[in-house]
Structures are given as C-alpha cells and as structure tokens.
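Issue 218. Parser rejects a valid record. Input:
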Amino acid sequence: MIKIEICAGSVNSALIAQQGGAYRVELCDNLKEGGTTPSYAQIAMARKLLNIKLYVIIRPRGGDFLYSDLEFEIMREDIKCCQEIGCDGVVFGLLKSDGHIDIKRCLKLKEAAGNMGLTFHRAFDRCKDPLAALEDIIDLGFERILTSGLEEDALTGARLISNLVKQAKGRISIMPGAGVRTSNLAQLIQLTGANEFHSTAKGFIESKMLFRDVKTGSNQDEFHYEQTDLQTVKTLVSIAKSFD
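Output the parser choked on:
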C-alpha cells in the first residue's frame, strides 16, 4: 500500500487533506521556513477534528538543526503537549555541529514522546554521512525518515533514496519529500521503491479583502496565501492506489 502524507500548514489544510483521502497529516506552521511547531490551539483543534493520523513537527525555528539548551527544552515541552492532546506522533531531527545525528538528544526526545510514533524529518538531508545516519536513526527507534535524498527535491535525489530503501530492508520507512507532485509521483514510486510519500499538495487562495491600497509588501504576499488543494490530494491518492 502506497501512503500519502500531507504536510499541512493549518488546521483547515489538514481537514482538506483528510477529505482528499490522505493517510496522515504532518501539521506545521511557517511552511516557507520549512515548517515550525504550530500553536497548542492548532494542534488541539486538529486532533479534535481529524480522524486520520496526526503527526506534529517539533521545530522551534527555521534554519539549522543545531539547537541551544533552551530550544531543546522547548522541543521537549512541545512533545509533552502533543502527547497530552493525543497526537499519533511527532516529527523532529537534531544534528551535532559536525553533521552527525545528535543521538543523545534524540533519545531524550524519544523518551518524552512515550508511545507516540516518530518521524525523523529533513534534518537528515543536512547530515554528513546519510548511510551511517540511517543506522543511527534505526537504532533510535524512529518509524520513518523524511528525505529528498540530500538534494533540492526528491526526484533529483531518487538514486540515494532508492539506496536508502534497500539498506533499510524494511527496518524503517524511507519517505521521499520535497517536490513530490502529481506529475512525478508515479515516477518516484518506480525509481525509489518507497511506500510512503510526503507532499504539501498546496495551491494559492485569493484574499477576499476589497481594500488593497497597502504600501507595504507585495500584492502576492499580502493578498494570497497557501492552502492544501483538495483536487491535488485526491489525484496523489489516486496515483498511489493505482500501484496497490
């Protein structure tokens, strides 16, 4: 079974993903920064309204994945909140300054997560040695790794993703993400051998504001916003089902 995970930047986008047949939602905020932890209210509302699996990104800021002690404690508290709310899983990744997986801190966050599922996010794509990192993440007990194969998009990184799938041998799921679209999903399934795929499936929504005489920002930034597109989700799910 090929599963589609939708990276949703709002509760509304998460509901659209569910309506479109997505298997799982990764709830984020600030998608333009690569995703940061959404508010407590967003997480709680998503859990209340979603019937599908809900994973929440645990990332206190954009930028790198080398965190201060304070940022780490914030991540641990956010994970505890997700557990209290009843989320199915959390999504995080930490690196050391030398580019290797921060095993010690990842283990502490895993302990905070209790029985929730774990996805190691695209911090993996900034690691020094992906093949060694894969073994570390397996040993830590993660369910899956979200990766573009250390490239700008999953199609460009398809060869490494395929090698990771082969090395994993079913011990962990390798989930391609970044640039996964309706136009290339079938090709990615064939090239990588993966059985889970991650996409924002996003479209742009026109603002309903009538007054637009604003001197700051651009028209595109001020009066459009991104949201999961229902038809895109449905098409991704349909393509995935064609391989079952």
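Fixed in the parser; the record now loads. Strands lie at 3-8, 24-27, 53-57, 89-92, 117-120, 144-147, 173-176, 196-199, 202-206, 224-228.
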